[in-house]
Amino acid sequence: MSRLIITAPGIASIQDIGRFGLQRYGVAPAGAMDAGSLRRANTLVGCPVGTPAIEIGPLPVSIEVAGPPIRFALSGAPRTLSIDGESVPLDQTHVIRDAQRMKIGSARGGMFSYLCFEGGLHCELQHGSNSLDERAGFGSPLRRRLQAADVLEVPAATAWHSERSAASPSAGPARQDVIRVILGPQEDYFYPETIDRFLTTTWRTALSSNRMCYSLDGPLLAHAKGYNIVSDGTVKGSVQVAGSGQPLVLLADRGTVGGYPKIATLASIDMDRFVQIPPGGEVRFKAISVGEAQALLRTSGARDSIALREASRLPGINPAALASANLAGLATNALDPAAFD
Amino acid sequence: MYAEPRFLPCGDSALSVEFGDAIDEAVNARVLSLDRKLNSQSIEGIIEAVPTYRSLLIHYDPFVTTFANLKRELIPYLGKLDLSRIDTNRAWSVPVVYGGECGIDLENLAAWNNLTTSEVIARHSKVAYRVCMIGFMPGFAYLGGLDPSLATPRRKQPRPDAPKGTISIGGEQTALQSVVGPSGWHWIGRTPLDVYAPDRNPMCLLDPGDIVRFYPISIEAWQSESERCAAMIRDAVQ
Questions:
Q1: What is this structure's pTM?
Q2: What is the rounded average pLDDT of the residues B139-158?
Q3: Which of A187, A190, A301, B54 has the fewest CB atoms within 10 Å, i.e. the most exposed one?
Q4: Which residues, including other chains, have CB under 8 Å from residue A140's CB and lie 6 or more apart?
């Protein structure tokens, strides 16, 4: 085992694919906001796609390593990444050694990133998940967000022939993006003109965006039959219209039931792009049918494994060093550090 | 209650089977009955179901089934719902300190309803409530059966940190709050009973269909009642 020492925590927590089966007890699934980026970083480091990661919010994070080298990849929001001051690419595996420091910059035009490790973080499942849910009292190894001086355990890196990178870049954050929705389940609580207004407005996500909810700034939407419904179940992507007329998009840490009418629900295919919209970002919605949404999802390859390619050969063999170290011609000592870059 | 239940898509990964649009015991009985039925079956693609007052929300995997398929598979179950077995035959006696620091809104709520605080306490603690649903926050129990003379509109502004164990009234509903969290309801009392504990099995003491009765205690009795509750939980869990 090697250790990660959190030196600047930003807003970060351990998240995996989520905790399912407890919504009937009021426990929301939590889990990665951008599940696609979690899959991507886990695939790069050779882990099952739902392996727990450090979910890193918009603020900068720095982490120091103590112990044997470990291998990691960072995917998600565009931002800088460096090891001991040297800039290294996202969506690629890297090895970081004892006493080296990883610095992750602020998200630039995005929200969340996923830091995944070869062999996975050391933690224990609670009802099938390691995801942090502070209110419910779940989360492993910590039942709270990361703080400075926290120590996490990660297995030592194994020898790889080469590092890996994603064959194609990630979709990137949504800018003035169109997010597809399925109307309902309570679209009958709104006038047709209000639904038109919802679909033709360019909304801005509010500064308060968090794992529970993104509020949308724009015109207020009028309710046709009052704003109280008998509370019913919510999903990730439910668009509730609050009593004030402001739409609220419920997300991973939502309440499991809600008492405001839900005008629409985000289509799963656009969920990851939506959650990456930074505060103040613009978004428009387009209605599609549930059948269309499901057909799109099935043909999207959203659950296919991402294609990888060899990023670099490490350690690379330097022919010049080989030649100078090898006076006898063929008898190079292959373990001599001088033979490597 | 609707003549025919409605199937409402909640996005592309969940659907709601809605039996009515009011708080009504007959509607809730159908929800719980369908929930129990599905728990004993294995329909491909269903991830979990969430019973609420008047609808059953079914989360499913859209890579395994579709809205149209699942609806087709669910329809046959609706004709043969067994409504006779929805009660769990479990009843809980729950101690409550009404008013004072434990129920800061008791006096206002009494005044709003033209009642004395003792009348509110008497009317609130004489009912055998039924747990209609658990949700919003972990272990938060929505109870059916509130005396209509105690119904009070919710506050305009929710307050952030209702203490764990808060007993509240919002509109025609009363509830038992399990963990600290926001609430727009009126806080009339507090119980030392731990209805939710993440490391306990079961983590959530109450289930929809359970019966809950409140009895008033004084603040001085908090500690002894708290111990009595802990003992009751040990018995219930064994």
A1: 0.91
A2: 91
A3: A301
A4: A14, A52, A123, A124, A125, A126, A130
Q: Residue A268's closest CA among A283, A253, A288, A247?
A: A288
CATH classification of A177-300 is 3.40.630.10, yes or no? no
Does residue A267 belong to the interface with chain B, where contact is any CB pair within 8 Å?
yes
**Burial readout A217-244 (b: 16 or more C-beta within 10 A, e: otherwise):** ebeebebeeebebbbbbbbbbbbbbbee
**Domain boundaries defined on chain A:** 2-166, 177-300
Helix B67-78 and helix B25-39: axis angle, to 10°? 110
Domain boundaries, chain B: 6-85, 91-237
Are A232 and B204 an interchain contact pair (Cβ–Cβ within 8 Å)? no
How many Å lie between the alpha carbon of A213 and the closest alpha carbon of chain B? 14
The pLDDT, as a whole number, for residue A306 is 74
Alpha-carbon radius of gyration of chain A: 23
Fold of B6-85: Gyrase A; domain 2 (3.30.1360)
Which is the CATH superfamily of the domain at B91-237?
A: Cyclophilin-like (2.40.100.10)
User: Is the predicted pLDDT of residue A54 greater than 80, yes or no?
Assistant: yes
- pLDDT, tens digit (0-9, with 9 covering 90-100), for B188-233: 999 999 999 999 988 999 999 999 999 999 999 999 999 999 998 8
Task: List the one residue out of B49, B26, B40, B232 whose CA is nearest residue B144.
Answer: B26
Strand (E) positions, A259-315? Answer: 262-266, 282-287, 308-312
Q: Does A233 touch chain B (CB under 8 A)?
A: yes
The beta-strand segments (E) located in A184-299 are 203-205, 213-217, 232-233, 238-241, 247-250, 257-258, 262-266, 282-287
Of A55, A35, A63, A39, the closest CA to residue A142 belongs to A55
Give the closest-approach CA distance of B98 to chain A in angstroms: 25
